[in-house]
């Protein structure tokens, strides 16, 4: 494992990211999340989940979970090389594809401009948005407590994302361009699909995976293994 080679791959990937709206509709939004049997071990069993919702109702219309072994260690700023193979396997297996996909992670708000949301978008051609719970890089102005408030995230004198308050007096999320979307549109869609802190597609995917982890250690659970 040569991290210098992986860094070069990320730099080349960043050059291919489209930072403008190349989407015709936003009727369905998907959220992809991953959980691990033991996050500190490598290799370890992992599950990837997508939940797709209707934008107009925020109700789920489709979901799928797959299971596999992940054998790349967790290394900060190299998350894509750990989680992306399973995400791609999930995406290829979908019976329907959403108009936009939220990825639990960074997009271009990454030291080399290509976090997992951008990497996924460039490889698949999907419209993607990075929605992270923590900041990876950059600085921003103080954020108002009001729901809908946001402040641009600046890194190396460039706007790489936004800190967005999706619920009043609750911690914000970090939104960034993944691929084929503008930051302003990404922020609008995140706010439109948020009832709680985390946008519904990602929140529902996280909850589904949380349930699978519980049943894995107790009752049987039926999941896709393809």
UniProtKB/TrEMBL annotation:
Residues reported in the UniProt entry to bind Mg(2+): 33, 104
InterPro entries the UniProt entry points to: Endonuclease-V (IPR007581)
Cofactor(s) the protein needs: Mg(2+)
Record family assignment: Belongs to the endonuclease V family.
Protein name (Swiss-Prot/TrEMBL): Endonuclease V
GO CC annotation, single: cytoplasm
Compartment annotation: Cytoplasm
Tree of life domain: Bacteria
Molecular function terms from GO: deoxyribonuclease V activity; magnesium ion binding; RNA endonuclease activity producing 5'-phosphomonoesters, hydrolytic mechanism; single-stranded RNA binding
Pfam families: Endonuclease_5 (PF04493)
Organism, scientific name: Thermodesulfobacterium geofontis
Major subcellular location class: cytoplasm
Primary enzyme class: hydrolase
Gene field: nfi
Lineage: Bacteria, Pseudomonadati, Thermodesulfobacteriota, Thermodesulfobacteria, Thermodesulfobacteriales
Keyword field: Cytoplasm, DNA damage, DNA repair, Endonuclease, Hydrolase, Magnesium, Metal-binding, Nuclease
């Amino acid at each position: 494992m040569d991290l210098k080679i992986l860094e070069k791959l990320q730099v080349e990937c960043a050059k291919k990211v489209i930072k403008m709206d190349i989407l015709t509709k936003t009727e369905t939004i998907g959220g992809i999340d991953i959980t691990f049997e033991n996050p500190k071990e490598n290799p370890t069993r992992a599950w990837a989940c997508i939940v797709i919702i209707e934008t107009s109702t925020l109700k789920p219309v489709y979901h799928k979970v797959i299971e596999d072994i992940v054998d790349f260690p967790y290394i900060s700023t190299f998350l894509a090389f750990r989680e992306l193979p399973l995400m791609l396997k999930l995406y290829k297996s979908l019976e329907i594809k959403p108009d936009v996909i939220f990825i639990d992670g960074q997009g271009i708000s990454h030291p080399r401009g290509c976090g997992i949301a951008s990497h996924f978008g460039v490889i698949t051609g999907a419209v993607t948005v990075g929605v992270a719970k923590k900041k990876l890089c950059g600085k921003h102005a103080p954020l108002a407590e009001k729901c809908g408030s946001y402040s641009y995230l600046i890194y190396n004198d460039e706007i790489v994302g936004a800190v967005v308050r999706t619920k009043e007096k609750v911690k914000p999320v970090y939104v960034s361009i993944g691929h084929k979307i503008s930051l302003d549109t990404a922020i609008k869609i995140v706010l439109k699909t948020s009832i709680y802190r985390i946008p519904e597609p990602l929140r529902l995917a996280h909850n589904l995976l949380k349930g699978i982890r519980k049943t894995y250690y107790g009752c049987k659970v039926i999941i896709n293994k393809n």
